[in-house]
Amino acid sequence: MDQPDIKDIANKSGFSKKENSFLLKNIRPMGSTIADVLVRDGIIQQIAVGINDPGKGMATFEGNGAILLPGFVNAHAHLDDNLLGVPWPRNEVPASGIEDMIAYSREVWMGLGLSSRVQSVRQVRASIAAGITHIRSHVHIQPDYGFEHVEGVLQTREAYKDLIDIQLVAFPQLGVVSDPDTLKMLEEALNRGIECVGGIDPSSRNRDPVGHLNAIFGLADRFGKEIDIHLHEPGDLGAFAVELIAERTRALGMQGRVTISHVFCLGMVEDPYLDKLIDLLRENRITIQSAGAGGTPLPPIKKLVESGVTVCIGTDGVRDIWSGFNSVDMLDRIRMLAYRLRYKRDDEIEMLLELATNTGARVLGDQNYGFEPGRKADFVVMPGTNLKELVIDQPKRTYAFKRGVLVAANGECLIPV
Amino acid sequence: MDQPDIKDIANKSGFSKKENSFLLKNIRPMGSTIADVLVRDGIIQQIAVGINDPGKGMATFEGNGAILLPGFVNAHAHLDDNLLGVPWPRNEVPASGIEDMIAYSREVWMGLGLSSRVQSVRQVRASIAAGITHIRSHVHIQPDYGFEHVEGVLQTREAYKDLIDIQLVAFPQLGVVSDPDTLKMLEEALNRGIECVGGIDPSSRNRDPVGHLNAIFGLADRFGKEIDIHLHEPGDLGAFAVELIAERTRALGMQGRVTISHVFCLGMVEDPYLDKLIDLLRENRITIQSAGAGGTPLPPIKKLVESGVTVCIGTDGVRDIWSGFNSVDMLDRIRMLAYRLRYKRDDEIEMLLELATNTGARVLGDQNYGFEPGRKADFVVMPGTNLKELVIDQPKRTYAFKRGVLVAANGECLIPV
Questions:
Q1: ipTM of predicted complex
Q2: CA of A90 to nearest chain B CA: how many angstroms apart?
């Protein structure tokens, strides 16, 4: 297949990584009242009403009353196998179970001959344009892919390291128990610089939940890494996996260092059991990541948050063969979650926005994020009446800044290719 | 509240209702191979490869290989109470049941002091920009609204009658049994030109399913009108209503003239009973309309279609106080339905597009719709590899034509305000 050149993305003039001091006037932090923000050397100096123009050639941006949010945090991506910028290949998967889709998406990906380096750059640039400043991405670790996915995403991370924070998870989509090569590859991926150990459906993938989880937790313990496990298993089978994960988290003292992604089972079990699972999650400070999904119950995000469980939000794979319908935009993801969970009230949408910003940054371990003097100037500006209207209208991002550098304007990534 | 002037929508120069003959070159009907389309006096003359330029000043549009679809049909709208172009009012509804939402949305609508005339114009213009050529819209009939909604939408329909086909349903959102004034208002609405009789949740709204349905069917029979009933009732209660509706359809000989909208219950009952309901729907030629929904099971559209039941698709209320998250674009609606119903294959998406075009036009009674010589030139052009990619990327509509008149280009409605 012809691959469009990524240089077709307009190469904007005037971009400079060194310009990271400016005054942003007339914005409304979190949709509140009008203020100005002064940024020096990429650090927030002051947020106040009517800051005087510091002059001396410092750039000034006019916000016109737009809303200022901290940068979006996409806590669950698959940068290495999207189909952005590629003509849509027909999806003719014969069935739609997870196993069928894993096999089918591998087959299509291999057939297209795409590059994880090129595709991850495409998603990173689209993410920057959408005001995303942080991504946690799961990278495929499996023998038939070799290290093409790992190296592609590591190269992209290096190239964009000043412009977006990317944390990587070594993701053994095919399991680890049945194939010793995968476990060796996971080790090698951690040695090459991947930060977290991934896992997937411990009972259904390799028919050996204890074997799978012990391998993953053992690896994370040995390398001192965090864990983020895909868990699609339904009902009581998924809940059993949550229990096993919580037991290992406690045993290894990994509280606060384990995330479970998707966790549809939390939307399926009955209330008394759900309450028990919630206690386990809270006690072991296990984070739940939800990207939504169309045809399955979802974790009850509001109940989890109100119960003291940390919840973050991601896009999951975007424009990929799984369905193709996920977009890179976290506002679109929040809309989908609100739609599925029947969140209509503005305060419910504000909660989801909090998870997609401040909470997500905490999960990704960024201590320097947020609207306080001394923190990094990672933020995004867009027009809107209030926070819910941002999710309804999904306006182009007026400006996006990373460490004080203007990385996107009017919905376009400004970074030269 | 300040209402933005609808004249702020750019008043394009050069628009003419009289120019309805043209040659459209290099498009791909339904995503197939390249062809040209010749239109004279608003009627498709020829669809063929390499049609010669007819000259004599006839306009020519270059398609550049874009996809040509017949105009989208939105089979379920609420033109009279959207919040398009209005700053988002906070939603602080205390609960989220249907009854709560009906009460709350009335309260907000009344408080905002908006005009159904202005709001329906906004939605009609946005719909035209999105390539929609036909709308069925439910209009609120209830004593506290008087005829403001009816008159507002009737005026909008008259003003845009050459540019979009609008069919109206008199919609007694509060029921008809408990309030004799509503029944009188329904009659009056039909006398003023509304084509269809609406209804809603016959058991739960007024606690008298037979009274509700007999009133509605009696009215439709007396006036010779079609019926379109909102049915949100779950499980066996909803299924009971389907049975009652089918009995009355048969008794009055109204086969092919009754639609049930939403019908979540079809996604909730067990298979043997579902099969019985499907038989009732097919035998009585009752149409099912689905607009999707986030937090409830949905009718199994593919199974219904494969069983010979007619299914059409609508947006439901857009940017309204119910959730705010529905958009006017039928491609967005198809994406939502695919997401909810786990339709991933391209042929499943193509089926949904068929429902949102050809099937919808048949439900709305348009005999002159479709890609055949002699039919009206109601169609829309947009770039894409294939039909599913349109739903994934939702590109701006390159051109939209209604009866051969160019009504939108590059995603904007061209009609002067």
A1: 0.93
A2: 6
